Amino acid sequence: MGLAQGIPGGRNRGFWNERKARWYRDGQRLSNFAPTVMNVLRPSLGGCESALDIGAGVGSLSIPLARELRHVTALEPSAAMMALLRDEVAREGINNISFEESAWGKAGLSPADLIVSANVPAIYDESFLREVTGLARQRVALIVSAGPEQDKFYYREIYPLLFGEEFPPRSDYLEIYTLLHRMQIYADVSIVRYDFDQPFSSLDEAVAFWKEYIPLEDDRHDALLADYLSKKLEPTANGLLARFNKRSAVITWNSR
Questions:
Q1: CA 122 to CA 222: how far, in whole Å?
Q2: Residue of 36, 68, 31 lying closest to 57 (CA atoms)
Q3: Could you give the domains of the chain?
Q4: What string of pLDDT tens digits covers the 256 residues of the chain?
Q5: CB–CB of 21/84 below 8 Å?
Q6: What's the pTM value of the predicted model, to 2 decimals?
């Protein structure tokens, strides 16, 4: 599940370096994303034995799906993410996940009963929607942001502070839902809320996080960022915590 919607560069093969991937994994371990989404997906699992997770990341959905299904294929183009995914699977002692380190459209994939993909909006065009509908034996599920006004990384406050300009609105699920409707696919939609907090060991690490994600290549804004984050982040026993609340749409439809 990507965190790069609306950020220059988006989510592509080079986006997830090792540091970003570890940050994402650390946030995922604190998040209730997986159980929240699985509560919506579970009614679709009846009769399913296999799943394909497109853009699997560190296994946010691949791992819980593997606990309920016979087999899961995790498709992930980033080597950094794939390494952490393999580590997470080994840590959990799961042996029914196969790994495909490849981008969508680059791998020869077999049909699966359920196809799921979370937060990879750059690939969710009409061609993708038709292909996954044909590849799924029973059901397709996409999880995408709900509400263009959402402000996961405090960008609506940070961009005016650093650059003197507003952060542009992000796309959301309604564009995908409308496209499906034009394709005569009448999907179900469930809106879910969950936490996706981000831990940091220090203020310096938090500053590095925002510099990486905005991105900033020099230290001109470090003092402004540090001052803002020192007031925004919550102290914990282990360092600091950025509290983020997310709202997403779980879009599901039958493939047959």
A1: 30
A2: 31
A3: 18-149+169-197+246-254 (3.40.50.150)
A4: 433 333 333 334 358 899 999 999 999 999 999 999 999 999 989 999 999 999 999 999 999 999 999 999 999 999 999 999 999 999 999 999 999 999 998 988 999 999 999 999 999 999 999 999 999 999 999 999 999 888 879 999 999 999 999 998 888 999 999 999 999 999 999 999 999 999 999 999 999 999 999 999 999 999 999 999 999 999 999 999 999 999 999 999 999 8
A5: yes
A6: 0.91
